[in-house]
């Protein structure tokens, strides 16, 4: 285990088992369709790559990048688009792939924006749901795990851009971010 990690919340094996289950669920619910899998950079990258490789139906890939701004903190709820999709989504079945839902600001902004482009459907697939931190009412349609209100890192999740490449979801030691 990494020296900055207090404990493991979800092991590599637990993640892969749950991701395989989610992939099978998506395969079945989207059978006969080719969903457009929209990964939200950067946190979703590991989940996105593993989820898509576990799916067997045809999919298309695209990415968006979002940034929070205003009042110096994401708690302001203001988000802006940094990178848009490459292609039009009118008439498409869109699945937004996220690593975590926290306040819900990011996904509520994204869902509203994508719906305005007249897709056939927009669903949310999130690996982690920190429900206790929710400010705006938004739910994942497909969810990996409920997540306690801890400082989680790894498997795409960062603290100051570090730890994204840990192969598990860990809890960051307080001493790392309180010093
Ligand atoms: C994280 C995460 C979600 C968002 C969730 O991204 O990937 O996009 O925060 O938080 P919310 O529900 O409170 O909006 P972050 O802005 O940390 O960027 P990153 O993916 O590049 O790490």
Outline:
The chain has 179 residues and is α/β, with parallel strands linked by helices. It has helices at residues 12-29, 45-54, 105-115, 174-177, and strands at residues 5-10, 36-41, 60-68, 79-83, 93-101, 121-129, 142-146, 152-153, 169-172. Helix 1 (12-29) crosses helix 2 (45-54).
How is this structure best described in words?
The protein has 179 residues and is of the alpha/beta class. The chain has four helices and nine strands; from the N terminus they run βαβαβββαββββα. The chain has helices at residues 12-29, 45-54, 105-115, 174-177, and strands spanning 5-10, 36-41, 60-68, 79-83, 93-101, 121-129, 142-146, 152-153, 169-172. It has a six-stranded mixed beta sheet with strand order 4-3-2-5-6-7, with helices on both faces. α1 (12-29) crosses α2. The two termini are 21 Å apart. 1-O-pyrophosphono-5-O-phosphono-alpha-D-ribofuranose (PRP) is lined by residues 40-43, 68, 74, 98-106, 158.
